[in-house]
Amino acid sequence: MGKQGKERAKARREQRLQEISRLRKLPYSSVERSGPLRSPHARHTPATRSSNCLPLPTLFHPPFVCPSTRWWSSETVAVVTGANRGIGYEIAHQLAVHGLRVILTARDADRGRAAADGLRGEGLNVEFRQLDVSRPDSVESFAKWIAEKYGGLDIMVNNAGVNFNTGANNSVEFAEEVIATNYFGTKRMIEIFISMMRPTTSGARILNISSRLGRVNGRRNRVGDMTLREQLLKDDCLSEELIDDMAANFLCQVKEGTWASNEWPQMYTDYSVSKLAVNLYTRLMARRLADRPEGHKIYINCYCPGWVKTAMTGWAGNASAEEGADTGVWIALLPCQQLTTGKFFAERREISF
Length: 353
Prior knowledge:
This protein is an alpha/beta fold. 41% of the residues lie in helices and 11% in strands. Strands 1-9-8-7-6-5-2-3-4 form a 9-stranded mixed sheet, with helices on both faces. Strand 5 (155-158), helix 6 (175-193) and strand 6 (204-209) form a beta-alpha-beta unit.
């Protein structure tokens, strides 16, 4: 991309950010009346805050929600994984601001408890529970606790994830942990909790935090194997076995030292492959869940929060955690008449996989 191309891209991004800033100030009912925005290219650490509750003067200002579009209540249970800091923390915070009962989970019990305590200090309905999505026993224990205490849940936000590369680094030293947490951890949560999503006319919602780096056909980080790429883009070819085999093949090549020559995404390769698998699994599960009867519908989507200033990016992003969380909360709280499933979002609009 030449100098003029970069300048045009920068101008488009600035215009889009201004539009998003405007949308955040509008009532949810005004924003959502025409449904989610669609891209023309689309195919298918807790901050110190005032203890005076809401609104928060310099951070997140919750948009007014028209009573006619508010489908949730203080009894609506939302689980947010990996929520002791960063985007997960802000999603938990913003959902709680809107009046939901939020279960904040984290692998580190001390940090998770401190995050939940801080939000409760603002008068929010937040509870902490320790959870490591990479460990089956931890997920099963958490599921048992949810079942006993709440009888199920209404919203699940799969945010827990790891990344060991920043800047120009592209090490695959921790690839196995990245895939185990980001993909298989997310998959495990969905498999176990599908049967625990509470029946409701508003539809249960699952949201997977992902990344544009995991797009099959991204311009700068695509899957180089054309045969595999075509299989991944076709719904009739997409299967759980194909996704799992892709992840297993990548890890096998990492162990053999041959991954760099096999046309995997070239930026943050292990993280990109893990998010590619999350995106694919989101599409697959949307198809599997599509035929559930009314009152038992489950809507599943994924979104990219952007390059956010968090510990995961080494604080090198161009958006705040509050801004990064915005689209996720927007999707989770879409009014019933605007619900969609199997889609990929960024900046409050649909983008291509």
